Amino acid sequence: MIDTPEALEAYLPVLRAAPWVAVDTEADSLHAYPEKLCLIQVSTPTGDRLIDPLAGLDLRPLLEALAGHDLIMHGADYDLRLLWRAGRFVPSAVFDTMLAARLLGERNFSLSALLERFLGVRLDKSMQKADWSRRPLTPRMEAYARNDTRHLKPLADRLREELVARGRLAWHEEACRRLVQECTCDPEMDPDQVWRVKGSHLLTRRGLAVLRELWHWREAEARASNRPPFFVLPHETLSRIAAAAVDGQDYLTLLPQKFSARRRAGLKEAVARGLAVPPEQWPELRRGTGRRLTETEQARLEELERRRNARAQELGLEPSLIAPRGVLVELARDWEGCAPRLMRWQRELLQD
After folding, report:
1. Which of 18, 99, 151, 287 lies in disulfide reach of 44, CB 3.0 to 4.6 Å?
2. What is the pLDDT of residues 69-112, one digit of tens each?
3. In angstroms, rounded to a whole number, what is the distance separating the alpha carbons of residues 351 and 166?
4. Which CATH superfamily is domain 200-281 in?
5. Which helix (H) or strand (E) holds 146?
6. pTM for the whole thing?
7. Residue 345: burial class (beta carbons within 10 Å; 0-12, 13-18, 19+)
8. Domain regions of the chain by residue span
């Protein structure tokens, strides 16, 4: 484990000189709120290293060294977002083995499934839900973490060969560029959308006012206790409480038996605040806002769907990989306006 400035400084020349680099990360999203970057795994021809971001290291030199390489990663979107938040990290390029597998038509594209299929390697995944903020790491946690990058280079080599053989390497390169663009920026958060959790579409406007207050109360509770929000109350329970409160029903029966008296009082205050919101300040309903397709647009949608499904079957791909149905609806309404948002290979597969 690299957990001192001296050890990190000694490793940087090795990292900079490496002809290839595989990277993964671990966070504590199941155990803390907000989540934090807890571990960075790096594999090069010299071996596997674990870097400890919780040891107070200055990660900038490490991220600068990583940025100089084309990185091999698996399911890179989550890792890239973690590294962006940790130090505004933007890699020069990424080879994502999960994306490669999907473009080859693999239906089970987890790392363990791919390693077993292509390399005959079996992984122990028992540490998948471990608390990665724990120190020291157990030997099993260390072994699990190292295995997440140890086999990525030979796996990437096999997948690259398959992509070249099927003429899909350019698809993968474009998909990885898009992935990097989307994951190395600050997401735009709509304050009127973030609290609309599962079940909110069933509520009245007054119910939404109560739900909004409950969501903000739960967010404060989660941060104060450093536990994910679902440990406080699940999304569905918030929506059910809001509906019951508006109907004048006893919503306290929906709470878990071990819900503390302090939290119970805080929740009741949140419900009261929501019920006291005047009608002119109730949130607007969001359902049914999209206009119906015209007959011409509906015919165009059916043709796009037929074409997409035929191409997907021909290529052995999931249809949604070419374009999800929601995207097809937008294309049916306005091809010229929406098509540029597709990747080039997706447009080519959908065009006549």
Report:
1. 18
2. 999 999 999 999 999 999 999 999 999 999 999 999 999 999 99
3. 20
4. HRDC domain (1.10.150.80)
5. helix 139-150
6. 0.92
7. middle
8. 5-183, 200-281, 295-350
